[in-house]
Model the fold of this input.
Amino acid sequence: MTAALLGLGMLAGCGGAAGLTGALQGAIAPLVGTQPAAAPAASAAGAAGAGGAVDPSSLRQVSLNTLGLTGTATRLIDNGASASFAGPQGFTYTMRDGMLVSTRGLGDDLMAADARQSRAALRAGGGQARRVHETLDGLDRIERAEFDCTVTPKGVETVELGTRRVQARRFDEACRGAALIFDNYYWLDAAGEIISSRQFVSRGVAYLRSSDL
Done:
């Protein structure tokens, strides 16, 4: 499991080369095979220290309203650039520098994404970006879609993070493709880190909300 997830984090973070998914599918095969529900329990055990307590920094609040999934996600792998998390009912997702780059176990998954220009626009305080998403069509073939996006600052808002409320800068990302339009929302702290976001997964899943605790 650990080796597969490490491959997932590293490969998903390399988006931009031709065929974002490629070797990624082989690396994550064990995750989407048997016993998907075992992932959160295993990950929680791995995150626990000698005293059995889970490190709060390894946890995130996650929700997928379309699928009725809400709960706590546990960090499984963090290689510095990408981090993979196990959410309720065993699905997993990977973030690269706060940007969603893949999901597994949701059915209509985001196989891979290149969101580097969107992240750069967030750092710059807004601007234009192009992103690439790869999903599977009805015949399990990779379907690639490109989106032209506009990142716009929306001022400072109060964000709920677990049991605390913090002030964060909000940015909206409006993306338009040949056959699909979606809007991502991001909340950044004073250091420019994404502490909460609502990011598009796919048509069938819609949006994933992920926040620090």
Q: What stands out?
A: Residues 1-18, 23-50 have pLDDT under 50 and may be disordered.
